[in-house]
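Q: I'm building a small set of examples for a reading group on sequence design. Run inverse folding on the following structure and report the sequence directly after it, with nothing in between.
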């Protein structure tokens, strides 16, 4: 399990076919980048591709809230972060950021509810003890961090009362 808080991913480079007609990263590929960063975390927690293939257990995203903060362009390189905000025996509540790898500015945030899945159903199922121990260790490490100001946001049109 990684010992840094929050977890920071490897470097990601954008691909030419991810750039839309507006000249910036298409919205769908922010999700791809967040997912790739999460895959690294999943591997470190023992819940990667091998876990799915051998134990027939995996994770599914149940809910995602993505916020676009600053445009990314083809020449930009990014790193993702992952902070485990909370968990129970079947779920992970996490917060991620994409930051420009060289300049450090925030490009996007992603808050996610992830479910642990028994692939034979598929159905939501508790984490096995060994995985839960790694999740709990990450949560203990991440509990030392402040809750991000952008976490827990909702979508609404706020209207002034007349």
């Amino acid at each position: 399990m990684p010992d840094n808080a929050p977890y920071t991913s490897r470097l990601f480079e954008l691909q030419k076919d991810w750039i839309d007609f507006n000249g910036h990263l298409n919205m769908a590929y922010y999700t791809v980048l967040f997912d790739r960063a999460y895959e690294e975390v999943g591997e470190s927690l023992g819940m990667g591709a091998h876990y799915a293939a051998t134990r027939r257990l995996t994770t599914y995203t149940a809910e995602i809230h993505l916020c676009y903060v600053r445009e990314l362009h083809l020449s930009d390189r990014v790193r993702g972060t992952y902070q485990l905000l909370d968990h129970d025996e079947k779920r992970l509540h996490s917060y991620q950021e994409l930051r420009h790898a060289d300049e450090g500015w925030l490009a996007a945030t992603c808050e996610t509810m992830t479910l642990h899945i028994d692939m034979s159903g598929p159905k939501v199922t508790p984490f096995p003890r060994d995985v839960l121990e790694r999740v709990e260790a990450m949560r203990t490490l991440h509990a030392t961090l402040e809750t991000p100001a952008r976490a827990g946001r909702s979508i609404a049109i706020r209207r002034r009362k007349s």
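The mean pLDDT is 95.
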